[in-house]
Amino acid sequence: MNAPQPRRYLQSLNAALDVLDLLGAQAGGLGVSEVARRLDMSKGAVHAILSNLEARGLVLRESGHAAYRLGRHLWQLGLVAGDQIELKQLCRASLVELTQLTGESSQLSEYCASDEVLYLERVVSPNPVQTCVTLGGRAPAHCVATGRALLAHQPAAEIERVCTGALVRYTPATVVDPARLRAELEKVRCTGYAVNPGEYRGEIIGVAAPVRDYRGNVVAAIGVSGPAYRFPVARAETVAGDVVRVAAAFSGKLGFGRAGVRAA
User: Fold this and answer.
1) Could you report the per-residue pLDDT of 33-56, keeping only the tens digit for each?
2) What is the total count of domains within the chain?
3) Which whole-number Å values give the CA distances from 52 to 13, 38, 65, 168, 215, in the listed order?
4) What range defines the domain where residue 214 resides?
5) Which one of 83, 118, 135 terminates a domain?
6) Bridge partners, residue 124, by sequence
7) What does the alpha-carbon distance between residue 97 and residue 92 come to, in Å, rounded to a whole number?
8) Is 25 left (phi over 0), alpha (psi -120 to 50) or beta?
9) Residue 174 and residue 28: Cα distance in Å, rounded?
10) Domain stop point among 83, 115, 137
């Protein structure tokens, strides 16, 4: 969905931002003619924009080359933005949306150690009986929904280390067979979401989806969990589409989905 237009639409400013977005989606640089062609602008206008951006260090040309690419100053601004904005701050609206849609508690997790996830943020269900994770608390990745959504996208060596390690059984439903866990992780990669049918806490069911950054790397997972009597596996499967959609929208806030960016 396109962002709403501001009350005062500054055409020249938005043209410059279009140029930056285009250069940011390229592995290499682009010349004036190619930028003009892709954005359906005149060469003169593109040249003026690039000249001004170059003067501010936002784009640059390597010596002897006519192609422009993003400049060092943008990188510096990005580092500052990264320090100022945390995942848990950005995700709050997404978690609120999930809880409003499902009536259940929602949470944000990141992979923090071999077979562990760390809970970064949560929104608690308005129901009297609710699931509630501890912020800063950890859980085994192989048997919770956000953990499995994250584990499925770890490097192959990490996945193999977890699958062949000491898989702890927490409930009768916990998957501790390496071959079956590998199959479950492959299912997550195929469907885009993970379901926990009571593998960690027997009466708690969860569903989660991965969150990607601007490079396409999975950096977090958001999920919903609830008591089995009210949130059975069938219900978790039903709302999985909403979880995937909200996770995708959150990924978009991190820059994923721009032209030229693919999932890792």
Assistant:
1) 999 999 999 999 999 999 999 888
2) 2
3) 11, 19, 18, 59, 27
4) 86-253
5) 83
6) none
7) 9
8) alpha
9) 47
10) 83
